[in-house]
Amino acid sequence: MAFTLYLLECADGTFYIGHTDNLDRRVQQHEQGLAGAYTANLRPLKLIHVEEFESRLEALTMERKLKGWTRAKKQVYMMGNWQTVGKLAKGKHRHQCGS
Question: Which residues have a Cβ under 8 Å from the Cβ of 69 and sit 6 or more positions away?
Fold first, then answer.
């Protein structure tokens, strides 16, 4: 069974990241305000990224990883720009180490 990682852009410009085994149903729940308090209060929503994974664990792992990233890093990830994702990761690491 395939699982889908998805990103929604909320009315205030923030991103919501989740995963599901039924994207159409889950997006509809978000749009109806039935998928949790965060998106319920920030409608309308726009589906901006979808990615398929072979297992729930893979989708959940990527969801958790993305939730820890900056907005800029999420945006270049959605564009498929892995070189810039890597640079942003290195830049954050160097900043934390004081370099």
Answer: 77, 88
